[in-house]
Structures are given as C-alpha cells and as structure tokens.
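Figure 2 data, in text form.
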Amino acid sequence: MIRDRTATCCFLPPADAPRVSSAVAAAISSEEQLQHLFEVSLDLFCVAGFDGYFKRLNPAWEKTLGFTAQELLAKPYISFVHPADRAATMAAALKAVGGRHVISFENRYESKDSSYRWLLWNATPVTEQQLIYAAAHDITNRKRTEARRAAGYAVTRVLAEATTLTAAGLHGDQGVQTRWHPRRTP
C-alpha cells in the first residue's frame, strides 16, 4: 500500500482484481438504477432538511406543481403548503425531526397556477444526516371524486328525507318545478 497526502493506493493480487472490479461495477449499476428510478417516477420524491428546506427533488415535482426545482428549493417547503394545512404539516415535520416515520399524511401544495394539489406523503427521517427522505403521491383526482360523491349522497339524502321539494329547499322561484305529475299507465 502506498499513501501520500492526497490518496491511498492499494495494490491487489491479480486474482482479486476481477472480484473488486465486479463489485465496483455492481455499485455503480445500483446507483444508476436508483438515479433512473428517481428521474422517471410519477410520484414526487424529495430529500428535505431538518431546516425546513428541500435539498433534492425529482422531475415529478415540476410536472405536478409547475414550479422549477430551483423555485421549490429556494423557499421553505411550508410556504407552498395550503394555509389550512400548515399546522398539521408542521406537526408531521416535527414528528419526522423527532426520528419517527410519517405514514399516509395528506396535505395540499400550491401549484404555479395558484391551484392546490392534494398530496399523500410517506417520510422517513435519518437523524444522523438531519434529512428526511419522502415520497408523495398526487391524490387530487381522488379527492375531487370523493367530494363529488359526498355531495351527491348529501343531495340524495335531503331529497329522500323531504316530503316535498319545497321542504327540500327546492323552490319554484329558483327554476325547479315543484309539481310532479306521474305518467299515466294503461
């Protein structure tokens, strides 16, 4: 073994060289695979610091929210969270900073067009590095479907429980016909 101030060089017996070479190639291959997964995922992957800033984001962030990675990295992540979700988001972040996993946490993130996207989060802290590794799935469409379904159920329930359309809050002056004539059957 040769050492100088900048490097350490180790000479291996020729018989060990292929084994070490294949181990290095496997490590590089694994790193490339992880990088590829990070780049092509439709889910939002991030590394966030305990300081409240994103450190690394995959391209899905820009595709989902419209902000560039640089814009998202420049401000504390809480500034992108819907105001009504900030307290819960801070509580989840404190849980992660305390070394606990965050599973199935939902909040809304602002998009560049000023709309909000619902995200479902899983996060794992690495306290020694003061980093949080997280993945979020965009559940906006699911939330919209749930809201439409709930509204439909509410209307159906009001109509089913009301004895008349007027009692249900549907008045003739609002453009809803309040008389109903059953079809005559032979």
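Caption note: Residues 17-40 form the longest helix (24 residues).
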